[in-house]
């Protein structure tokens, strides 16, 4: 565990800067006083694109690579054509830094309001493939803009890429008490990609005899997310299915304002990147309504990734306590951040740290 952290920060667009500010406050409160945190902020997103036409220049990509981790708010703005920042900035980072494990935990914390009936036990983690599938940009359009337009978006699935993420998911399942792994795909229709996934899933599974396995088509998985979420422990799935499923997972565990993610480069060749699952939420940007909890929980994932397990747990405990104490009264983004800082500070080893 390093006693210094070089953190790159990309606040981004919309509510991104608002929630990142709270994440940084909590990070500062959680870290032991002898850990030197240096942050470098990157001006990337809609403002930069309007000013210069740039999304993510190579020099900045190289500079980002020199950090221990990246904290990102969100990118995307209605004033920028759809896809320019999402592909040119966010996906460029995930691909360039080989973030093939997109880790998205889903836990229903006690006291959290869920739209589901009863008191379901929800505690699973989605291991979403992060560098392949329909996200690679392999496609195009012919006769664009005419009534005869044809557009393709090819899903790219390599044995190498599928095996490494499936193996990561087995490792995570093996390390959890229930040791259960569910593959979610659509191999009744997407037979080429689907059978590659299933064959690799079964072959790697022979190395993990303690892990119970299961397969679900993605449409059926959405049913069980709502009717029987307790059946899931670890889920492995492709890039697009994982994107959609994790917004649903957020909705059933208290809302998108609580959902965290880590884009992990397991080998550590490149910095891993932590970000809330949600986007830039232009509809509430600037209003102080954004819940920063998803970013704060992403900071906990960041801390754990860098080896600060006790500090990660303190941040998660602070969130659990805050969520349990919610009584429906409206708090601003800043007030939620302050409350979380207070809870993290109060549980510092040796008692509260003086301000
Ligand atoms: N990782 C990312 O940077 C990321 C992720 C998703 C979407 N996007 C981009 O963000 C933009 C908006 O996308 P969208 O509207 O589809 O999804 P979104 O996640 O930004 O918003 C969906 C809904 O959730 C609400 N919401 C989101 N985060 C919230 C929070 N922290 N607290 C309270 N409410 C919250 C929004 O107000 C909105 O009603 C688009 O440009 C999209 O491409 C970026
Ligand atoms: C903005 C977009 C590229 C991104 C994705 O699809 O991965 C987002 O929806 C997410 O979930 O992080
Ligand atoms: Mg998404």
Percentage beta strand: 15-25%
What is the 3D shape? globular
Write down how many β-strands occur, each being a DSSP E stretch of 2 or more residues: 12
Q: Largest sheet, order of strands side by side? A: 2-1-3-12-11-4-5-10-8-9
Secondary-structure element pattern, one letter each: EHEHHEHEEEEHEHEHEHEEHHH
Judging by the overall fold, what is the CATH architecture of the largest domain?
3-Layer(aba) Sandwich
Outline the biggest β-sheet.
10 strands, mixed
Instruction: Write down the overall mean pLDDT.
Output: 96
CATH topology of the largest domain: Isopropylmalate Dehydrogenase
Low-confidence stretches: none
> What structural category arises from helix and sheet content?
alpha/beta
CATH superfamily of the largest domain: Isopropylmalate Dehydrogenase
Helix content: 40-55%
- Count of structural domains: 2
Annotate the secondary structure layout.
Blueprint: E1 4-12, H1 16-30, E2 36-41, H2 46-52, H3 58-65, E3 69-74, H4 84-96, E4 101-107, E5 123-129, E6 139-142, E7 150-153, H5 159-175, E8 180-185, H6 191-205, E9 212-217, H7 218-227, E10 234-237, H8 239-252, E11 260-264, E12 272-276, H9 293-305, H10 309-324, H11 333-346
Parallel strand pairs: 1-2, 1-3, 3-12, 5-10, 8-9, 8-10
Antiparallel strand pairs: 4-5, 4-11, 6-7, 11-12
Helix pairs in contact: 1-9, 1-11, 5-6, 7-8, 9-10, 10-11
